[in-house]
Structure formats: C-alpha cells, structure tokens
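User: These chains co-purify. Model them together.
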Amino acid sequence: MIAEFRGGNFRRVSFEVASEGKRIADALGIGLRGVAVGSGVAGKAAELGQYGVERVLVRDDPALEHYLAEIYVPVVAEMIKKCDPAVVILPASVDGRDLGARLGARLDITLVQDVTQVVCEGGKVKARWPIFGGKCFAWSEWADGTLPIMSCRPNVMDCLPPDTSKRAEVELADIPIPESRSRVKAVDMDSSGKVELSEADIIVSGGRGMKEASNFALVEELAKAMGAAVGASRAAVDAGWRPHSDQVGQTGKVVTPALYVAVGISGAIQHLAGMGYSRYIVAINKDPEAPIFSRADYGIVEDLFKFVPAFTEEVKRLKSTCS
Amino acid sequence: MAVNIVVILKQTPDTESVIRLAENKKSIVTRDLKWIINPYDEFAIEAALRLKEKHGGKVTVVSYGPSRVVEALRTALAMGADDAVHLDDIALKSVDFLRVTRALTAAVKELNPDIILIGSRAVDYDQGQRGAIVAEHLGWPHLALAVSLESDGKTVTIERPIEGGKVTLEAALPALVTVGGSHTIWNPRYASLPGIMKAKKKPLVVKKIADLGLDPALFKPETARIWITSLEMPPQRAPGRIIDGADAEDKARKLVTALHEEAKVI
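Assistant: Joint model of the two components:
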C-alpha cells in the first residue's frame, strides 16, 4: 500500500487503504507492506502498523514536502520495485489519482482508478469502480502476469479499528530525488477547518431552490449544527452562489457520506449520479413531484426557508441533550 | 511567443443520458445516446483558445474513436481550433486504455506541441488517467486539475485544488496540463454559425495506427492487460417515505427522531 502523508501526518484515507490492503493480503495469504514518502514521514511511519502494515519503506526528504508528479513518480516507482508486490493499492485522493495514473504508465502496469470494492477469488483480484459518474459500476480483472494496481475511493473502504500495540518496522530507502522541470510555487491551505466533501460523513447541499447566494447561510448553519460539509448542485454553482469545489454530480464530485441532505435540489440525473451512493438521503423540496424524492430515504415536502431553520434548531436540541 | 497547442479530446455520452446495460452486461446500450465532447475536454479547448488569443499560435485537436467522433472534432474546429487529427482505427476499440494512450501519444508527438491540454477526467469511464499517461510516455512534466492557466510562452502556471486548499504549480514548456474546474470557471464558448461554416473547410486528417509508425501487433485484443468482466447497476434504493406533520417544526422534530433513532446517522 502507498500511504499519503501531508502536513506532518498521514491522511485518514491512508488508514482506509492500509485496512483494505490488510484484507487483500489476508485473502491472498501474504503480508502487507507500506510505501511512504514525504517530509518528516520517517518518524510517523511506524503508525501504519496499527492498521496491519508489517513493514514500511520510507523516503523522507524536505524536497518531498508537497506532491509533485515529476518527483514523486520516479521515487515511488523505485520503491515499489524494491517491494516486489503482488498487488498495489493507493488512495484515490486528488494527489493519489494523479500519482497512480503516471506510476502505472511508468511501470507499464494498468491502474484502475477510484475502486469501491475489491474481491479475491482463487488468488485473483477483481475490482469494482463507478462509471458514468456513479450511474453504473464496472468490475475489472487483470490479465495473468499483470500486477494489479488500484486507487481506492476515500470514505468507502472500512477502516480497521487501530491496534495501538502494533508498530510497523520502518526501513529507509536511499533513492535519489530527480531534477524536475516543474515546481510547487505556493500552497494555500484553508484554515477554517472545513470538511472535505469527498471525505465527509454528512453533507448538506443546496440547489436552485436556495434562490440566492446569501441564503446559503441557512445551509451553512445546518451543516455547522450537524458537523457536516457543504455541497451544491450544478445549478447553484453555475449561478455563482457556490465555488466549483462544492459541486456534487457527474461533472463535480462523487460523494459517499453516511447522510446526504439535499436542500432545494430537484434532482437532475447528473446530480443523482454524484450523490446516489450516499447511505441515507434526505430531500427537502416544496415540489412533491421533484425527482429527488424517488431517491430519498426521507422526504420533506415543505418550503425550505421555513423548514431548514426548524431542522437546524432540532439538530441543536438533540446535540445538547446527547452531550 | 506563439505557442503550438494540442488538445486531446474524447467524445462521451451526454451527461443527461440514462445509462442502460447491453445484454452481455459488459457494455452499455449506445444506440440512443446523444454524444458530446467530454465536458472537461471542452474546458481544455476553451483554455487553449484563450491562450492562442493572448499569445498567438495554433490549436490542434486530436481524438480517437469511430466515425461519429468527427462531429466532436468539427465542433472544436467551429469553436476556433485550427486543425484536427482523428485516430480512426478499429484496433483501438478492443484494447485497454494503456494501449489507446500509447497511440494518442504517438499522434500528438508528431505535432510537436509546446503545450498539451486535456480534460482531467472523462464523464464516461472516469479513469482520469489519459493526461498523466501521455505525459509519462513523452517524459514531460504534467500539472493536473487546473482551475486556472497562464503561460508566458516559456512556462505554464496553474492552480490546482487539493483537499482543504489549493496549490500553485509551474512547469517549463513543453508540458502537459489536465484541466479540471467547472462550466462556471471555463465557460466554454459555443460554436457560432460562421464558425461552423469555417470549420467545414479546416483540415481534418484521419490516421491509422500504422500511420503513426506503431506496430499494429501491439494493439491486438489479446495484448490487453485488463478488461471489464461485467457492468452492474447500483442497487435499487428501498422506497423512502415522506415525513408528514402539522407544520415545519413538527416535520423537523420527526425527521431528527428518524435520523437519530432509525438511521442512527446523527
């Protein structure tokens, strides 16, 4: 498994990938090795042991602080060769998807991106992944003699409960860092602690029914009460009410939360594709004929401007009685 | 200063399409589909045309697939691209995308571009790999998921959103950029009527694998490393229920109870 290390820590998706790696390794009767690169990663690498990684090959260098394909790909490719793996898995995060694609080309192996389920049958690995923005799924199988490599979608694979008594054995790799024609000029992290959509447990999304940008305050407030991320339909993004990074759908993000609350969203087919994989869906819309209701577990036919504030209050009341 | 830009595009089913499985459950029914330029590739075309307008140069669009793909290429020409290359070879139908990308790489290489632009993903099989693979085959830097793009003719600079923030990246040309973002960011222009008339006279070259100096044996179906064994539709959702109540407050109470006690998600 290839771990993702950023800002001094492993990202949570690395633990999901390690957990999935452990399940695959057990099914194939082999061990699980980790590969980790980054600045300051050596001191943290043993943590992967909590999720089933036995040994981690590490390349720790300040030049690896931020992901850059031109530098990461040759380094990680050499590390994979040293591990001589039977299967390679990595996170389908923004950087992971990029790394995996180029790594596959460099090693002349075929990556499957954004895998949501893996099965091992008779020693063979099969992977399932969403196509057409989640309207349908494909099962893939690799040819005999081909190394299966796949990126795993965040927030889908079950994370093992960490076994804090276990540490992975850390091995430092001495791989030169290549010259590159590209560079990272600036990194601008949002310090507001906003939850990333593709990794959120709960998402509250607003659509055309919000009527104007300022009304998104209602959605923000509900999201805050629920500890949720804020999303938007394409209509809301096209209207300029929300940034494109909030867009859920076939030309936005495919999301997989435990709970998706659609506020004033009618449910265009492209939007349903992007959020249809959520565990529970709540739809709030005053039009009882809105297509979103055909996908919702719980439907509220009501004026959102009346309902959302009441809903927010109820959520706050519940949180105060539970805590 | 003028830059030679190549845009690689793919024709995909319209995002409004309802996807149905073919009887063999390994492919989809294509006969009723409306075909469009993959939206992200359309953003790449727009980005290329803006670069050309600013600095001069030339935009060539390259695609592969059956004869219907000509329509997508003509649309790009009508938007303002200068010429087009269509890789139309039946062999590309039955190989994996590593092979297809090898053919695309050979096709773009002979155009000698300074910048290659391509959508960050395609809305059909959504693998988001073509750009990175082409860059690797060429040994070029690639900057992925651009939501802005600037070039001074020597370097290219993009902004790339990452989880919880964004990074600014720069590469020396020649380089490849994959274009992300949304319709709002790129607002791709429509093909105007005069543009459509002009497009009919612009050069569109059709090529076979053999024309690219590649060995057709590499593209035999049995060389595929991976294949799709089956397709399946997402599980049907159990019918949901409409929560009724005297007023908004009553409905809100009932919803919160349902989410807390039944679904146990809050």
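The helical segments of chain B are 39-55, 69-79, 97-109, 130-138, 183-186, 193-199, 248-262.
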